[in-house]
Amino acid sequence: MSELRNTLLPIFFAEADAAFGVLRDFFAGTDCEGARLEEAIRAVHTVKGAAALVGLEHISRLAAAMEEALDAKSLDAANCPQGLDEALMEGFALLQRLSAQASSAQSHSQQDRARSAELFASFSTWIRARLLSGATTTRIEPVGQGERPEYRSCHFQCRGKAYHVPIEDMVEIAEPSALTALPLAPPHVRGLMVHRGEAVPVVDLGLLGAQEATEPPRPSDWLVVAAAAGQRLAFLTEGVPSLDLECRGTAVDLGQFLHRYSVGAS
Prior knowledge:
Mean pLDDT is 81; it is low at 135-149. The chain has a five-stranded mixed β-sheet with strand order 3-6-7-5-4, with no helix packed on it. Strands 8-1-2-9 form a four-stranded mixed β-sheet, with no helix packed on it. The chain has helices at residues 3-7, 9-28, 34-53, 57-75, 84-103, 110-118, 124-133, 254-260, and strands spanning 153-158, 161-166, 170-174, 189-195, 198-203, 222-228, 231-237, 242-244, 250-251. Helices cover 41% and strands 18% of the residues. The chain has eight helices and nine strands. It is elongated and about 65 Å long. The chain is of the alpha+beta class.
């Protein structure tokens, strides 16, 4: 079992278990509007974000579709199309099944992946119309007393120094990847990685301002993938990064970073 699974997946499973408890109560109850519906939206939002951060894309995509459907329901509960509630319940059962498979390192079946992709297809026009006409499409409220806190940052080390990326800038924590050299790049750009079909620069924060890179990236380095202004960057880390309730270490301000440092050829 990889270091990534040992360290990061338990974070997802802890968040998912708590969210599934909320969703289980929601679908089992008769009060499916108001505060209960808002709690369900927050729960599935948590599953979506936590799954994306650890690379469980099928789970994240299904949770995202459920969040949109629940959001649309909250905006127009009186006119929900027939079958939407049944699709939501099936989606929840599928979320639990996909999570259980990930927990036991099983591959998701082609049938489950296909069903996950098509589950809300017949309701997509209604959902989009409600979301576009509603006052908001994100109904996540601040954490109140007694509720579970949300992660605020991704914390990591680079050359002995602590850094963090704000959680809103996070895309994914990725396993070590083969890098392609980028000719004429500044020393802190160690190369390019392929991330979801896109070439992404990989940055070594410990080499900012250096005249040359004296050693190659280590095969054990992990990657924090973040995004700002439509551009993705990956940052080398020493050891596996962690999600944090606080913001510890130097903040990586992606907007300022992109403005101050050249990421392409120099």
